[in-house]
Q: What sequence folds into this?
């Protein structure tokens, strides 16, 4: 597909809102997933440290 101008590119033949909205939703979902994974990792490491301390007592 060829576009005559940048505005045509961003409009994507009338489907620009859908196309760019889909990219935005996907980007937000990926960033949220990374944040949740990091939080879960920290929580798991805390639990393992507590378990190790409890076993040593």
A:
């Amino acid at each position: 597909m060829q576009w005559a101008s940048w505005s045509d590119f961003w409009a994507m033949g009338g489907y620009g809102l859908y196309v760019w909205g889909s990219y935005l939703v996907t980007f937000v979902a990926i960033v949220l997933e990374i944040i949740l994974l990091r939080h879960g990792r920290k929580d798991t490491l805390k639990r393992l440290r507590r378990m190790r301390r409890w076993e040593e007592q």
Observations:
- The chain is about 80% helix and 0% strand.
- Residues 30 and 36 are 10 Å apart (CA to CA).
- Residues 29-57 form one domain.
